[in-house]
Specification:
The complex is a heterodimer of chains A (about 200) and B (about 1000). Chain A has about 200 residues and is an alpha+beta fold. In chain A, about 20% of the residues lie in helices and about 30% in strands. Chain A folds into two domains: about 20-30 and about 115-195, Probable tRNA modification gtpase trme, domain 1 (Gyrase A, domain 2, 2-Layer Sandwich); about 35-110, Alpha-Beta Plaits, CATH 3.30.70. Chain A has four helices and twelve strands, in the order E-E-E-H-E-E-E-H-E-E-H-E-E-E-H-E. Chain B folds into seven domains: about 1-165, Roll (Ubiquitin-like (UB roll)); about 165-285 and about 420-480, FAD/NAD(P)-binding domain, CATH 3.50.50; about 290-415, FAD/NAD(P)-binding domain; about 515-575; about 615-670 and about 765-855, Gyrase A, domain 2 (2-Layer Sandwich); about 670-760, Aminomethyltransferase beta-barrel domains (Alpha-Beta Plaits, 2-Layer Sandwich), CATH 3.30.70; about 900-990, Aminomethyltransferase beta-barrel domains (Elongation Factor Tu (Ef-tu), domain 3). Chain B is built from 23 helices and 47 strands. In chain B, a hairpin with a 7-residue loop joins strand 39 (about 805-810) and strand 40. The chains are: A alpha+beta (about 200), B alpha+beta (about 1000). At the A-B interface, helix 4 of A face strand 8, strand 36 and helix 21 of B.
Chain lengths: ~200, ~1000
């Protein structure tokens, strides 16, 4: 089997970098993507066709445009009126139902290799992200499970605030831009002092 | 270290327990934490800090704040040096090094001052009238400018790269409070108590504003600051200047985070650029004391009266021992008493004759002399003021009369009133109005989300500032929907004279002879005198905006903070109009100078723009590839096999190898778009000029798309994966544009189509395998898949696997060789490439870069960026056979415009040099073999290369009536390089025109 390599391969070295800081203040890590699938559809039938499909995975329905839905470890982002991005912890969950989907009614697309996910967590996460994104990361404005599509260093990214007590944000970025975005993130993280870890 | 002759034994807010040394003009200066460079210089008795811009007159510290027009210094050294730094805002720190920006051989003895003798010959507009106008269309000014600028002494920009870093920060709040004086603190408190998220931005190191310059009010200040700082919903930014107010309630702030040290701590930025998005804001920016204009008002020792107070009470510096305070308002009286108590002999020269008894009795008690109804007409002294001449005031227009008196002094403090700081208000597009009671420009009208408070709104006492600030904070919070009870705030208990009671506004003091003394300066930074304003008026520059540009009054680093009002008052006199009719200039960002580094932030060097990397980039780098930027991508240009191999040798070797054996090129940057839906085929029929609905599943088709105006937009190959799904490829450079256009068409013109387009450029790594041994290599790599010509003919694809990973193999050729494109899920791309290299070793596989790829495609006559330049049609490119006559498509109507059908339009040809050792430059113009070389010729060269196959230089070009001129000798003229190359016109395809190799 060919080796599976992250776009950030060779760029993430575990350890502490930048200014001195207490452990856990700011943690950067790459999150593995099991399966990332786009589910599409058409204006006249999307709700009626996509909602049952999502319910099979445990989601309540197609959801709104600013709040991610979670079902176990799976996450659904409604990224456009007729588009939902599904993130599964493993490909198996998706593959179990993928074959039976009517592609004419609900076109699906595997984007598992097209995105790289970087997690920013710790008390200084909001401070770092404020240096990268024009988003209000205050809890009241961008609380748990909120997501938004924005640009970071001129690169389109999906920003997802994870539903955790400690500040924790996942950045979904196009894989070809992953290194340049990672470098911009770490450049700005240096003034806080940050820890690179295998899992955030 | 030297003594500090002007430092008082007690007083001030400096840390007297710590002493350090700074260097100014190679002299050691004693300073304390809490000092500014200016306060340290004054404490150490330094009078002359710089020389004036035009006449090289000696200049000393004038103010204690951002308005400083005189004391501009070259701060720090080496790569960290910074010109035009205001000594009044530079915090002193151990090891600080600063120099005067002009003066030769020294600032104290400047030979440039000889210019002053010719001042009468150098009026406003001097440079234009002398160096530019008479010598129009020559380089005379360019020659002179170098010397004039050197003489002016405007500081030196650093030549080395800035070693420090800068940050950009986005911030959001309900209420932004600009300024943390009495009004700003009160506003922040009210808004925060109401529950709003507050950002309080203060340009100073400390909170307190004008209260820091006083000896009373500390209890109130401490309590208020403590409460504000204790509130969790308040973020306090000190050393932070709000320099810009923009549409949408966006504000630009610069925090000088580590400007107060020589070298910032590791990993810390020197400055931060804050972009604050506020739901509402309070502008509590205070007011700046206005100078009075009189003869010799620029001598070192002439300072603003409020600055004297600041240096006394904040820094413990008594600037002089014999002080004249020249005023036309009440504000200096408290200052006079404090200076007298500190040991100075103080005389107040007040232009007003009818002073309140309360002021007279206070000054008498403080042993301060008062000359009411008098004005300072002139100063005396060479390099610093030693005396003033005063005369009785006549009328309210600045006139004087009668005998003059001489008063010895070493400092003159001036106060012509105060000018509210309305820059941010003005930046929001509002004009201020002139208030004839307060003799100042004040905010006019309202901005729902910007409330003015304190002195900038006309409050002239601290009591008024506190109450107006508190009300403004509550109002701003309410505008952001926070209506909680803010309670009340009592003002500090202090006596406060204010500044507008019975105040006078005059443009300049006239001598008893009725004339304004020659050395009466309106703009200290640019040496603008009354005669300059009068000249501008005589020459018709009667608009205040024209006056500014003609005289340069109000330009440069201080932007007229001290000069504008006096100058426009003088213009009003000359026009015979009231000040409101003259108006004031429009303020634009920045309020104070902002370092380029702060604006640039982290977008510098390799972070100037994002860089895209292929999934296989690591392999290329490890192999030692030479990279080239191709759009946002970093791509291997070639792979040197020895340290000395240059790109020319490298690409020729690589291209030759592909034709002989097999090569791999990473084409992952190609644009890739998934087109899905029941109407996908119909959509492609409309987008492409040729038919796609007839394309069978499993096959590929080359397609061309036009812009609406009929010109070629992009080309690429599309595979039909299923009845409802296509896989489109685009050129690398147009990937984003094509995607945007497809989305646009689907969302606007053809919203009835059930089609979804998604970029999958990052989902797939793409490897082109080209050369006569390419099938052998792929077959050996993919094992079971049948890649024979029968099973996989040209323009078809097959699904296969490399070491267990599913891949798709498109049989298509860009090089003209037998070739395939292998699409691999991106995270397996690196190892798939490595596997192909490993398996291909017995076949002699070698990687090749973009240069060789370009050479191969030119040999084959394929069009690319040079030909698809947005100005060519299908016909121009010999692609008209791809225009379907059975259907309509985007651009099909306008491509038939007569001008685009003109048979003389340049069209695609090949060019081959007659002398095979001579190369052709891309962009060369094409001319017939004989005749004049003039005009634009018959066309131009679009792409060039050395052809390894033909052993000579070839090119593609667009030539008028090209297909009819095959075999003709023409000249390729490179006007930039000054070369002419003779070529033979050929068909565009140089290699294997029958396609035998690619169809093998």
């Amino acid at each position: 089997m060919l080796e599976f390599r992250s776009a950030l391969d060779g760029h993430l070295s575990p350890g502490h970098f930048g200014a001195a800081a207490e452990p856990g203040k700011l943690i950067l890590s790459e999150r593995p993507l099991g399966a990332l699938v786009q589910v599409g559809g058409w204006r006249d039938s999307f709700e009626s066709v996509a909602a049952p499909l999502l319910q099979r995975f445990g989601f309540a329905g197609t959801g709104g445009f600013a709040m991610a839905q979670t079902a176990g470890e799976a996450i659904a982002f409604r990224t456009a009126p007729e588009r939902i991005l599904l993130n599964f912890p493993s490909p198996a969950a998706w593959e179990a139902v993928a074959a039976g989907i009517d592609q004419a009614a609900t076109p699906t697309l595997d984007l598992s290799h097209a995105r790289t996910v970087v997690r920013v967590s710790g008390p200084a996460a909001a401070g770092l992200l404020a240096r990268l994104l024009p988003i209000d990361f205050d809890d009241a404005a961008f609380g748990p499970d909120r997501f938004v599509q924005s640009t970071l260093h001129s690169v389109g990214v999906l920003v997802h605030r994870r539903a955790r007590s400690a500040p924790c944000v996942d950045l979904y970025m196009p894989s070809s831009f992953a290194v340049t975005v990672w470098e911009m993130v770490t450049h700005n993280a240096a003034s806080f002092g940050y820890q690179v870890s295998g899992a955030g | 270290m030297t003594m500090q002759p002007n430092r008082l034994a007690v007083g001030g807010r400096i840390d007297r327990g710590t002493t350090f040394s700074i260097r100014f003009n190679d002299r050691d200066i004693v300073a304390h934490p809490g000092d500014t460079l200016a306060s340290a210089l004054l404490a150490n008795g330094v009078k002359i800090v710089g020389r004036s811009f035009k006449y090289h007159r000696p200049r000393g510290v004038f103010s204690a704040g951002v308005e400083e027009p005189n004391a501009l210094v070259q701060l720090r050294e080496g790569a960290r040096t910074e010109p035009n730094s205001r000594a009044t805002t530079v915090e002193a720190y151990p090891g600080l090094v600063a120099r005067s920006q002009s003066g030769w051989p020294s600032v104290d003895t400047d030979l440039g001052a000889i210019v002053g003798a010719f001042a009468r010959f150098m009026p406003a507009g001097f440079y234009y009238k002398t160096f530019i106008g008479p010598f129009r269309n020559t380089r005379w000014w360019m020659f002179c400018e170098h010397f004039i600028r050197r003489a002016a002494g405007t500081g030196i920009a650093p030549a080395a790269p800035d070693p420090d870093t800068y940050e950009k920060v986005n911030a959001f709040c309900d209420v932004l409070v600009v300024g943390a004086g009495p009004a700003g603190l009160s506003a922040a408190l009210a808004a925060a108590r109401a529950g709003a998220r507050v950002i309080l931005a203060e340009q100073d190191r400390d909170l307190g504003g004008s209260l820091l310059d006083q000896t009373v009010g500390d209890t109130w200040l401490r309590a208020t600051v403590d409460e504000v700082a204790s509130l969790p919903n308040v973020r306090i930014l000190t050393r932070t200047t709000t320099f810009g107010a923009f549409d949408g309630d966006v504000y630009g702030l610069v925090e000088r985070a580590w400007d107060h040290v020589d070298v910032p701590p590791p990993h810390q930025p020197r400055q931060r650029y804050w972009v604050v998005r506020a739901r509402s804001a309070v502008m509590a920016t205070g007011a700046i004391e206005r100078p009075l204009v009189f003869g010799g008002n620029d001598l070192p020792g002439v300072m603003s009266a409020s600055a004297l107070r600041a240096y006394l009470n904040r820094y413990g510096v008594l600037c002089g021992r014999k002080i004249v305070l020249f005023t036309a308002n009440d504000s200096v009286y408290a200052t006079a008493g404090e200076l007298a108590r500190a040991g100075a002999a103080v005389t107040i020269v007040d232009m007003r004759s009818d002073l309140p008894e309360e002021l007279r009795s206070r000054t008498a008690a403080a042993k301060v002399d008062v000359l009411a109804g008098f004005a300072v007409v002139n100063t005396h002294g060479g390099k610093a003021v030693t005396a003033v001449t005063v005369a009785a005031v006549s009328g309210r227009e600045g006139g004087t009369k009668g005998p003059v008196r001489r008063i010895d002094c070493d400092v003159v403090g001036v106060s012509g009133g105060f000018t509210p700081t309305l820059h941010l208000w003005s930046q929001r597009g509002r004009k201020p109005r002139f208030d004839t009671d307060k003799l100042a420009f004040l905010p006019d009208g309202s901005i729902p989300t910007l409330v003015c408070a304190g002195a900038c709104a006309g409050a002239d006492t601290i009591t008024d500032a506190v109450s107006s600030g508190f009300a403004a904070g509550a109002k701003a919070a309410a505008a952001a929907d926070f209506v909680g009870d803010a309670g009340a705030l009592a003002p500090p208990k202090l006596a406060d004279d204010g500044w507008q009671r019975g105040a006078m506004l005059i443009s300049a003091v006239r001598a008893p002879d009725g004339e304004i003394p020659a050395k009466s300066f309106f703009d200290l930074q640019h040496d603008v005198k009354s005669t300059d304003i009068e000249l501008a008026h005589r020459e018709g520059y009667v608009s205040v905006e024209h006056l500014k540009r003609y005289t340069t009054n109000g330009m440069a680093t201080d932007q007229g903070k001290t000069s504008n009002v006096n100058a426009l008052a003088r213009l009003a006199e000359l026009r015979g109009s009231p000040i409101p009719a003259v108006g004031t200039t429009t303020f634009r960002p920045p309020y104070t100078p902002v370092a380029f580094g702060a604006i640039v932030g982290h977008e510098i060097g390799r972070h100037f723009r994002p860089t895209r990397l292929s999934p296989i980039h690591g392999w290329h780098a490890a192999r030692g590839a030479a990279f080239i930027d191709a759009g946002s991508w970093s791509r291997p240009r070639y792979y040197p096999v020895s340290p000395g191999e240059d790109v020319q040798a490298g690409y020729i070797r690589e291209a030759r190898h592909v034709r002989a054996a097999v090569g791999l090129v990473d084409v992952s940057p190609l644009g890739k778009i998934a087109v899905q839906g029941p109407d996908a085929a119909e959509f492609l029929d409309r987008v492409y000029t040729n038919m796609f609905s007839t394309l069978k599943v499993g096959r590929l088709r080359y397609g061309v798309m036009l812009r609406d105006d009929g010109f070629v937009f992009d080309d690429g190959t599309t595979a039909r994966l299923s009845e409802t799904e296509f896989f489109m490829s685009t050129t690398t450079v147009n990937a984003g544009k094509v995607m945007a256009r497809l989305e646009f068409l689907l969302q606007t013109a053809w919203s009835d189509l059930k089609v979804q387009v998604t970029s999958v450029s990052d989902q797939w790594a793409t490897i082109a395998v080209a050369g006569p041994k390419s099938r052998t290599l792929l077959q050996a790599t993919c094992g079971a898949a049948d890649l024979s010509a029968q099973a996989l003919p040209n323009m078809a694809f097959a699904c296969a696997a490399i070491d267990g990973v599913p891949v798709r193999i498109h049989r298509m050729s860009y090089s003209g060789e037998l070739a395939f494109e292998v699409y691999i899920p991106a995270r397996y791309g690196h190892s798939a490439w490595a596997e192909l290299m490993r398996v291909g070793e017995p076949f002699g596989v070698a990687p090749y870069g973009t240069e060789a790829m370009g050479a191969l495609r030119i040999e084959k006559g394929h069009v690319a960026g040079g030909e698809l330049d947005g100005r060519t049609t299908l016909k121009d490119l010999a692609l008209e056979r791809f225009a379907s006559t059975k259907k309509s498509f985007a651009g099909c109507v306008l491509r038939k415009r007569p001008v685009l059908e003109d048979p003389t339009r340049p069209s695609l040809v090949g060019l081959m040099t007659i002398d095979k050792t001579v190369s052709i430059k891309a962009g060369s113009l094409l001319f017939p073999a004989t005749g004049d070389i003039a005009g634009h010729g018959d066309g131009h060269v679009t792409s060039t290369t050395f052809s390894p196959t033909l052993g000579g230089h070839i090119a593609l070009g667009l030539l008028a009536r090209g297909p009819a001129r095959l075999g003709e000798t023409i000249r390729c003229v490179d006007f930039l390089g000054g070369t002419t190359v003779n070529c033979v016109v050929t068909a565009p395809c140089f290699v294997d025109p029958e396609g035998v190799r690619q169809n093998a």
